[in-house]
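Progress report, Aim 2. The chain analyzed during this reporting quarter is listed below.
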Amino acid sequence: MADLARLAGRNFLVIGRAGMDLYADPPGTQIEQATRFTTALGGSSANIAVALTRQACRAALVTCVSDDAVGRFCLNQLDAYGIDRAHVRAVAGEARNSLAVVETRADNCQSVIYRNNAADFAMTVSDVETIDYAPFSALITTGTVLAAEPSRGAAFRAFDLARAVGLPLIFDVDYRPYSWPSADVAAQNYSRAAALCDVIVGNDVEFGFMAGHPDRGLDKARSLITQGAQIVVYKMGEKGAVTITPKGEFATGIYPTTALKPTGAGDSFLGTFIAALASGVPVRDAVLRGSAAAAMVVARVACAPAMPTTAELDGFLGQHPGPTG
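Predicted structure tokens for the chain:
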């Protein structure tokens, strides 16, 4: 069990993809009717890194990008957000960067994801073995990094190396069925990763998937605490969340908002939640800060650009003193 007090260093290593998002413009436009699109940095891990930097933390990304214009777009965006990309490797050949074509629509929002021969899956054990883990405060990864080899083996090797120097391991389940060869392979690897981690965040569908039955997700979340996890957040959409620790559990609601889209909430929650813990905020208040950030992001266009700064988040919380539900 790692010491979560180490989070106070506010310097995070994030493993996983960076991609390009194309948003049908103006907001409300369906993809099939669009004649123009706006671009933004995408990919769950890159979005989490942005959320952390917006909350005055440092973040370094470990991944691979394609050695082409789209990959260079991602590199330029990482630079623009102040994310350390010293451990991002460009991959030549036929590998292609993750690409998402997305709508800004609250209802019937379409998102078309291109993950064929994804460059981020080319991350190898060698990529993670060259990193000095000691200066970091925690290792953060999302479930998509485990969906294929050699990325999967590299991620588990990074877990071992991070744990060897006492880093807390933080896991955002982030289940994307289209990335996996089968549901069984996904469930096995998610359960393996979750059993190794100190902080696990996921939604009710994801925990139910890991449990093998949609009605047993909360039981699965609770079981991770008995296996050694220190914090598990079981998110339930509009019903709020249940947070479980060795000292007990508590429920929290959500903040009211007028949503423009459903995307980005999970990434903003995770990054802001961890940043709050790093600031010494109690777990309950950290969950609420993450929930408020999620409410802000779904009310804004895009994901990475929508991540709130600390000042913006504090302003929102000043106007919304408590969640609903």
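The two ends are 33 Å apart (CA to CA). The mean pLDDT is 96. These observations will guide the mutagenesis work planned for the next reporting period.
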